[in-house]
Design goal:
- The chain folds into three domains: 87 residues, no CATH class; 249 residues, 3-Layer(aba) Sandwich (Aspartate Aminotransferase, domain 2), CATH 3.40.640; 122 residues, Aspartate Aminotransferase, domain 1 (Alpha-Beta Complex), CATH 3.90.1150.170.
- It is globular, with a radius of gyration of 25 Å.
- With 506 residues, it is α/β, with parallel strands linked by helices.
- α15 packs across α16.
- A hairpin with a 7-residue loop joins β11 and β12.
- The strands form two sheets. It has a seven-stranded mixed beta sheet with strand order 2-8-7-6-5-3-4, with helices on both faces. A five-stranded mixed beta sheet has the order 1-11-12-10-9, with helices on one face.
- Bound molecules: gamma-amino-butanoic acid.
- Gamma-amino-butanoic acid binds next to loops.
- Homodimer.
Length: 506
């Protein structure tokens, strides 16, 4: 923090706006210093010679940080220092060698949007206080619905705090559609046991809906999936009939477009046929795979039939690279969201306002406060256009295909678990001592044991991050995700070489 003017050392952040109007220049200087800290982080994030993380165990990290809340406020200088320290120990999720989560990368246009959003500091519940952002939300949501399907143009959508809450909104709307009196009369209005269905590979938030909404998790039926992680439609229909024969009321099916671990796509058309036959709501959880709707090359067959759904979750903060968080839920039918959730709080959603109150979109959701997640997406989409997003999707898929090719070319060192449908590539790393062993359940157990050890080495070296997990069919395996615009073929080569460097002796 050398070079800071003495003004920064004075222990009075109240020297800047809004307290001291005459200190506009010092306010600007403080914020520019902060921007320098942010730019240093962005530079380091994009520098392949920089580590992704500087790992410390929590008890050691606590000693490196001064996190306490003081009795008296600290100086501006200290605040700049605090910001720099915070970023020093933050994992660089935009680093080209960070392959760990579904949301990777740091899109600088979207980030610029987030900076503006923070500065505007408004709530998204009414047009009254967020006029431009509400109109933007309307335009972008309509555009996304048109991409889902022509018949969706006049539907409805909302940005929600994450894919799990988006799925919950779908559940609530589906129940409201079938039991419109539930809102006023509650559980007594449903004469029977409601049942929902999702694949055993779906996101856990779907099961959580059953818990939160009073069905109980036993009434969220987990439909078996095939070897590739796709729901088996005949199993779905068998389980629906089984529950109907018990007198239950099957009402909601969640089809996953891009499962979290394997990146599998359930066959939407087959599932839509079953939903039509049995009068069930079809929700597509495309939180992860939704981005591929933007690619002519990769949309089909993965998302074929999505236009037949009643609702779709689609998270731009995943494949599209919008900054966290940016999650959307779309409905084919307009008006449901409002009639399901509207409470007409009369201090906020007055019916006699100056303007058309249909723009007070906050009354459509069970939240009150709503973060502004639209501006960063709108700005990013303006920058890229549909064409830019299509190229982005195609590049991510092509890089994943490259990774699969390289894994196959080094089959002594890597074992590809399956041909992926999207950017999730599942594989084992094979250390030297296991290379000549025949591949069987015993070797899989041994390879599974290597995953946490190799991951720990990656984190301690700070050079690479790739996730691992077990599933129902196999012990721990690596799941590599390419969803960052920063990744190149050289980074993919680095990924495999670095795993081998760190793990060959295991
Ligand atoms: N279900 C959301 C994200 C999970 C992941 O990044 O791995």
């Amino acid at each position: 923090m050398n070079g800071l003017p003495s003004f920064f050392k004075e222990k009075v952040p109240s020297n800047i706006l809004p307290y001291k109007l005459e200190n506009e220049a010092q306010t600007r200087e403080f914020l520019q210093k902060l921007v320098d800290v942010l730019l240093d982080f962005i530079r380091a994030t994009n520098d392949r010679n920089e580590k992704i993380l500087d790992f410390h165990h929590p008890e050691d990290m606590q000693k490196l940080l001064d996190l306490k809340i003081p009795d008296q406020g600290v100086s501006l200088q200290q605040l700049i220092h605090d910001c720099a320290t915070t970023l020093k120990y933050q994992v660089k999720t935009g680093h080209p060698r960070f392959f760990n989560q579904l949301s990777c990368g740091l899109d600088l246009i979207s980030m610029a949007g987030e900076w503006l959003t923070a500065t505007a500091n408004t709530n998204m519940f009414t047009y009254e206080i967020a006029p431009v952002f509400i109109l933007m939300e309307n335009v972008v949501m309509t555009h996304m619905r048109e991409i889902i399907g022509n018949s969706w143009r006049n539907g409805d959508s909302i940005l929600a705090p994450g894919g799990s809450i988006s799925n919950l909104y779908a559940f609530l709307a589906a129940r409201h559609k079938m039991f419109p009196n539930y809102k006023e009369k509650g559980i007594a209005t449903i004469q029977g046991q409601l049942v929902m269905f999702t694949s055993d590979q779906s996101h856990y938030s779907v099961k959580s809906c059953a818990s939160v909404c009073g069905l109980g998790t036993d009434n969220c039926v987990m439909v078996p999936s095939d070897e590739c992680g796709r729901m088996i439609p005949r199993e779905l229909e068998r389980l629906v009939i089984e529950r109907k024969n018990k007198g239950h009321i099957p009402f909601f099916v969640c089809s996953t477009a891009g499962t979290t671990v394997l990146g599998a796509f359930d066959p939407i058309n087959d599932i839509a046929d079953i939903c039509e036959r049995h009068g069930m709501w079809l929700h597509v959880d495309a939180a992860w795979g939704g981005g591929l709707l933007l690619s002519k090359k990769y949309r089909h067959p993965r998302l074929s039939g999505i236009e037949r759904a009643n609702s779709v979750t689609w998270n731009p903060h995943k494949l599209m690279g919008a900054l966290l968080q940016c999650s959307t839920i779309h409905f084919k039918e307009d008006g449901l969201l409002m009639s399901c959730n509207q409470m007409s709080a009369d201090y906020l959603f007055m019916q006699d306002k100056l303007y058309d109150i249909k723009f007070d979109t906050g009354d459509k959701v069970i939240q009150c406060g709503r973060h502004n997640d639209i501006f960063k997406l709108w700005l990013q989409w303006r920058a890229k256009g549909d064409e830019g997003f299509e190229k982005h999707m195609d590049k991510l898929m092509e890089l994943s295909e490259y990774l699969v090719r390289r894994i196959k070319e080094q089959s002594d060192k890597f074992y590809l678990i399956m041909e992926p449908e999207m950017v999730n590539v599942s594989f084992w790393y094979i250390p030297a001592r296991l290379r000549n062993m025949p591949h069987n359940k015993h070797r899989e157990q041994e390879l599974g044991k290597m995953c946490p050890i190799l991951k720990a080495r990656m984190m301690q070296a700070g050079t690479l991050m790739v996730g691992y997990q077990p599933d129902e069919r196999r012990p721990n395996f690596f799941r590599n995700i390419i969803s960052s615009a920063a990744v190149t073929e050289k980074d993919v080569d680095f990924l495999l070489n670095e795993m081998d460097r760190l793990g060959h002796d295991l």
